[in-house]
Specification:
The complex is a heterodimer. Chain A is of the alpha+beta class. Chain A is globular, with a radius of gyration of 25 Å. Chain B is of the alpha+beta class. Chain B is built from 21 helices and 14 strands. Chain B has a 7-stranded antiparallel sheet with strand order 4-3-2-1-7-6-5, with helices on one face. In chain B, strands 10-11-14-12-13 form a 5-stranded mixed sheet. In chain B, helix 11 packs parallel to helix 14. The longest helix of chain B has 29 residues. The N and C termini of chain B lie far apart (68 Å). The chains are: A alpha+beta, B alpha+beta. At the A-B interface, helix 7, helix 19 and helix 20 of A face helix 9 and helix 20 of B.
Chain lengths: 538, 630
């Protein structure tokens, strides 16, 4: 592939960069296949701006006879301006940015070119696998098994090759179940609650259709999930009305008559476009510069972002309650089972399982519940809040998850082992990254594009000693207890570290947090480590 | 109207208190009666010991009046049966043993603003007969009793009398209690010492005792700092032109650039547009001291209010003040603030308005008012730190003015961000300068609808809280201190927030007859410390006063709601305590290292030499110099 055909002007001198938190600077702008670089002449060393073109969500240009201004709006919500001398140069640069920032081909993306010096591609990709999870939970091997029915992705294109299913069902039955579930997403185990041996399953909706089709194997599978217990819950992330309507288009829900031991609970969760529009409104409100008592709170409310968080957290709380408090197994699905389903199963696991609250545990959870489970990152994160492009499959579900985790972090400052800067980092990486982790829509696509052999893994990188320290919560105190979030509107707060991150005040708070972190680690080192005095003496 | 506590529920008293001979119940109206035994004799029963343990060290002066069966109509758990216990200090309720979850109430009588009878002897419906209690601290309580036999009369009369002692010719509780603390909090603020700390007097500013007997201005402190060249006669002439004689005096001086914050009341311009050359000259003297072309006068009020004040003889500085610029800060008056907080209470208590929470919150305008106060203070601080002296006033100069000067000083002077410095700031800018605590809070006064009441001080503490949120390492104290201060703003257990001004306090021997809140605070200071405090003496803090960066102080305004999570309070507090201990240990080690290494280790040589003053501040400073990254 040749990027150079899109780059008519690679270098421009005398460009003025106006970006938040910095004074305007004059220097040289450079466009490469994947980056926008800016360095001012005085400063040696690292460039002042090194931006992945992929990070650019929208551009606006304003031209005059002799120069032009390009406003660049990034997916990380930063907005900056470039004043470029010469109309032609400016148009060329704008054209390059517009084209290169939304290249469609996965294999042309930067992660395939990113080669940091200190790591090689031979390292094992990723942190976990269904096999590993299964190996760790020996106590339920009598009822569950590892199936590789999907080894060539033919049964369910969005599932990983191996999944955990009830032992009584053979692979042939699974194939039948897959035909009865949207996207072939037959119910699989995603969480095993050690305390009471209850499980969380997730799937796509059953394809009952208008004429109430049934599937014996599907009923059998769910019956097998229950084992000796005689009751389970199905949490449907749609309202019961929506679920009814879905039957008209071939979807549906588990009827009482066919699944007598299962009780359905409907919780209407917004997804898709509604969520994307909510994000757009919120970001607009956050960027509103007018100071006329700016009706900020009303705007925040109107964006509905916080109410989406409330719904997500309370539905996840409901799920956790079913499993942890009431001792029942739960199946979660909406329609496709690739968005809200994953959102609440993830949150419920963080609420219940202390292991998911550690840095490694959390990343492993994300890998299992979002990457392996087939959340279509490529589609969902193609654009963010600024894009004028016609929206197709964009939806900030993953961002909503990170925000929900941030709310937990805020409500339980001691209970999570990772810091909130990890959430911020993940929010960036999901939209534009040096790493291959969030590329593609599912495991199969990653396999096709050889993502796991030709790119580096973000999660591995985050766990390297050099990075790791930065993402640990200095106040962390592990607790075995479930952390039940409060979902009262007063308990939920705007994630200012993300949404207002380009305001100086938030930077100050971030610096103060860093300082606190340094303090705690310093105290700990000197007090706990007596060798320190030796080194000082020496 | 003697209460006969044993008439009713005498059995239960015996059961509660063990041998009744240990206890001589104090009778109403005679404070000299023997107090309830010693605390140890009363611990015979768990329930009571829970209650009495609250009273702790000042138990000997608590008079136990009444305990009886009652139903608390809890907004969160419904009607709860239990026992109410009333002393001359508090109302205490605990649900019966068989009620789950346990419901407890602990209300200092000082926090009560209104007691009303609800329903009558013939009212129908369950729990329709009882008492309604409105509190000053963002909650209301409702109790139901049996309809027979005037069962609420004793409790109503007790509450009415002891919640509003001043309306009944009784002393406030602070005058009754005999608490003892290791430290005397009244000594925390010595005006002369504070002036000396600021570098006063100097060649431009002198200290005057013109108000020593409070006959110059009865609402001002007894020592004042005024321009060196203004003679006492000048001051007297200026006083005639300033509302209530509250002349412009110095609150704070910038050590390097010598710019000052001066506070006063409005000039008495009136409808006829009176002038006073002495006042004009006086302000110009203040300007000249800093060789700036303009003196900035911040009038805290909205422009229209300032104009309207002319009708009642007040006003603002007009064009005749040639070298001054007048800036209106648009902060509303005490009545607007009172109504705003009332609206806030309506949407958070008992149940939180959920469906349109944010727009409801917006419609109370509370955060907007907080924003205006903060942004006013920022403007003051900004002027001063750039070398311009400022004058701050509102109408009388004891509400908005106090908010603005004290917040600006908090931004400018890191000393006020320490635990003790903050106490000095409150003592100085609020208490000594005559913020009318008695009128604003209505201590011991039954007149709940008094138009003089207003949550101005609460609003100030809210602003401080907003600052601590924005600068998590800049304050030596933590949120618990702010909450404690607001608790005792109402409790009347300490003398600190009693009376309207210094002269009234002296008249009532406040300092000798009551205990200071700072005695309590400084005797257990560790629970009020922020483990992450790292002092930076030169730093001016500019908080962001934008709605986007202000939060509702949920852990104060919605603290009575059990459904709101307050950050898992106890484990966090525990962790902070551990961290404080860790920090102390760290500092100790560091000090040892410094001692042993003082000759050999060059890497520590730039740390300041330890001095003998407060050990925490010294050592934390060492710490900062060594490790603060910026």
């Amino acid at each position: 592939m040749e990027f150079s055909e899109h780059i008519k002007t690679a270098n421009v001198e005398n460009v003025v960069l106006r970006q938040p938190l910095h004074p305007p600077a004059r220097g040289t702008l450079c466009v490469t296949g994947h980056h926008l670089l800016f360095s001012d002449r005085e400063e040696r060393g690292s460039p002042q701006l090194l931006l992945l073109l992929r990070n650019i969500d929208a551009t606006e240009k304003r031209m005059s006879a002799s120069s032009g201004t390009i406003t660049i709006k990034c997916k990380d919500l930063r907005v900056f301006q470039l004043d470029i001398p010469g109309m032609e140069q400016c148009l060329n640069i704008a054209h390059s940015i517009e084209t290169l920032s939304c290249l469609g081909h996965v294999s042309e993306m930067y992660p395939f070119f990113y080669r940091p010096v200190d790591v090689n591609l031979q390292e094992q990709w990723g942190l976990s696998s269904p096999e590993k999870l299964f190996g760790q939970t020996k106590e339920f091997h009598d009822r569950w098994r590892l199936s590789s029915v999907n080894r060539d992705y033919s049964v369910c294109p969005s599932y990983p090759p191996t999944v955990i299913v009830p032992k009584v069902l053979d692979d042939e039955s699974l194939k039948k179940v897959a035909k009865f579930r949207q996207g072939g997403r037959f119910p699989v185990l995603c969480y095993f609650h050690r305390k009471n041996a209850m499980v969380i399953m997730r799937s796509g909706q059953p394809l009952t259709g208008a004429n109430r089709r049934r599937c014996k194997e599907d009923e059998l599978l769910l019956q097998a999930v229950l084992g000796d217990s005689n009751k389970g819950f199905i949490i449907d992330t749609r309202s019961s009305q929506q679920a009814q309507q879905a039957r008209m288009t071939g979807g549906g829900f588990e009827s009482k008559s066919s699944y007598s031991c299962w009780k359905r609970l409907h919780r209407h969760m917004e997804k898709g476009r509604a969520l994307q529009e909510s994000l757009i409104k919120l970001v607009e409100a956050c960027r509103d510069e007018s100071h006329n008592m700016d009706r900020w709170l009303s705007k925040l409310e109107n964006s509905k972002w916080l109410s989406h968080i409330q719904t997500a957290l309370s539905t996840a709380g409901l799920l956790a309650e079913c499993v942890e408090r009431d001792g029942h197994s739960v199946l979660v699905h909406g329609s496709e089972g690739t968005d809200c389903t994953l959102l609440i199963s993830t949150l419920a696991q963080i609420i219940m399982d202390p292991h998911c609250r550690t840095l490694e545990g959390f990343l492993t959870l994300l890998e299992r519940e979002w990457l392996q489970a087939g959340h279509p990152f490529q589609e969902r994160c193609a654009h963010s809040a600024y894009s004028h492009a016609h929206l197709q499959h964009e939806s900030p579900v993953f961002l909503l998850l990170l925000d929900c985790v941030h709310q937990l972090w805020h409500q339980f400052p001691l209970a999570l082992g990772f810091s909130d800067s990890l959430l911020l980092r993940l929010a960036n990486e999901a939209y534009a990254s040096n790493y291959g982790t969030f590329l593609c829509n599912n495991d199969q696509e990653r396999c096709t594009h050889e993502v796991k052999t030709r790119t580096h893994c973000l999660f591995k990188a985050l766990l390297k000693p050099s990075e790791r320290d930065h993402y640990l919560n200095p106040l962390y105190e592990p607790t075995e207890l479930a952390i039940w979030p409060s979902v009262q509107p007063q308990s939920l707060q705007l994630w200012t570290e993300f949404f207002l991150r380009w305001e100086p005040q938030i930077q100050h708070i971030e610096e103060a947090k860093k300082e606190i972190k340094n303090m705690i680690s310093h105290w700990g080192k000197l007090v706990l480590d007596d060798s320190c005095s030796v080194s000082l003496n020496g | 109207m003697l209460l006969q506590p044993r008439e009713r529920g005498g059995d239960c008293e015996q059961q509660l208190l063990g041998s009744p001979s240990n206890i001589i119940l104090a009778l109403i109206g005679s404070f000299c009666s023997v107090a309830v035994g010693s605390s140890s004799t009363m611990m015979s029963n768990n329930e009571l010991s829970v209650c009495w343990s609250f009273f702790g060290e000042y138990c000997t002066s608590v008079f136990f009046f009444l305990d009886k069966d009652i139903i608390y109509i809890c907004p969160f758990n419904g009607a709860v049966k239990g026992k109410v216990l009333i002393t001359n200090f508090r109302l205490y309720f605990k649900s019966s043993y068989n009620v789950s979850p346990t419901v407890m109430l602990d209300v200092p009588l000082g926090a009560i603003s209104r007691v009303e009878k609800m329903g009558g002897a013939s009212s129908r419906g369950e729990n329709s007969y009882g008492l309604d209690i409105t509190c000053k601290d963002m909650r209301n309580l409702r109790f139901a009793l049996k309809q027979e036999g005037h069962s609420r009369r004793d409790i109503f009369e007790l509450l009415f009398k002891y919640a509003f002692p001043l309306s009944h010719g009784l002393p406030l509780f602070a005058y009754v209690t005999q608490e003892k603390y290791a430290e005397n909090g009244w000594k925390i603020f010595k005006p002369m010492e504070e002036f000396r700390r600021q570098g006063l007097p100097n060649n431009k500013w002198r200290i005057t005792f013109i108000n020593e007997k409070y006959d110059f201005c009865d609402t001002y402190p007894h020592v004042l700092a005024v321009p060196f060249e203004s003679k006492d006669e000048d001051l007297r002439r200026v006083a005639t032109f300033r509302s209530r004689g509250r002349i412009p005096v110095l609150s704070w001086i910038h050590r390097e650039n010598q710019a000052v914050i001066v506070r006063c009341s409005q000039p008495l311009v009136g409808m006829s547009g009176k002038r006073n050359r002495d006042d004009e000259r006086y302000l110009d003297v203040i300007r000249e001291m800093n060789h700036t072309t303009k003196l900035t006068i911040f009038d805290a009020r909205p422009n229209v209010n300032a104009v309207a004040n002319k009708a009642t003889g007040g006003g603002y500085e007009g064009d005749e003040y040639q070298n001054a610029e007048l800036v209106f800060l648009d902060i509303q008056n005490i009545h607007v603030m009172r109504e705003s907080l009332k609206k806030l209470k309506d949407i958070v208590y008992p149940n939180v308005e959920e469906s349109h929470w944010l727009s409801s919150l917006e419609s109370t305008h509370w955060l907007e008012h907080v924003k205006l106060v903060l942004s006013g203070a920022i403007q003051v601080a900004d002027k001063v730190s750039s070398g311009n002296s400022v004058v701050v006033h509102c109408s009388d100069g004891w509400d908005r003015t106090a908010q603005l000067t004290s917040l600006a000083m908090l931004m400018l002077d890191s000393h006020y961000r320490t635990l003790r410095g903050f106490q000095v700031l409150i003592e100085k800018e609020w208490i000594s300068f005559g913020h009318k605590f008695a009128s604003r809070i209505g201590h011991g006064d039954k007149n709940h609808a008094d138009q003089d009441r207003s949550p101005i001080f609460v609003q100030f503490i809210d602003c401080v809280w907003q600052m601590t949120k924005q600068f998590p390492t800049a304050f030596e104290f933590n949120e618990s201190l702010l909450l404690e201060i607001l608790n005792h703003l109402y409790s009347c257990r300490f003398g600190t927030f009693l009376y309207n001004c210094e002269s009234a306090r002296d008249l009532h021997d406040l300092r000798s007859k009551t205990v200071s809140l700072w005695s309590l605070v400084n005797s257990k200071s560790e629970i009020y410390l922020n483990p992450f405090y790292s002092p930076e003496s030169g730093r001016v803090l500019y908080p962001v006063a934008s709605m986007r960066h202000l939060e509702l102080w949920v852990s104060y305004y919605i603290r009575w709601n059990p459904r709101i999570r307050h950050k898992q309070q106890s484990p966090v507090e525990q962790r902070y305590k551990e961290l404080l201990a860790l920090r102390d240990e760290y500092l100790k080690k560091l000090e040892q290292l410094q001692l042993t290494d003082s000759f050999t280790s060059p890497c520590l040589s730039h740390s300041p030499t330890p001095n003998s003053s407060s050990p925490t501040s010294t050592s934390s400073q060492q710490f900062t110099h060594l490790h603060t990254p910026f």
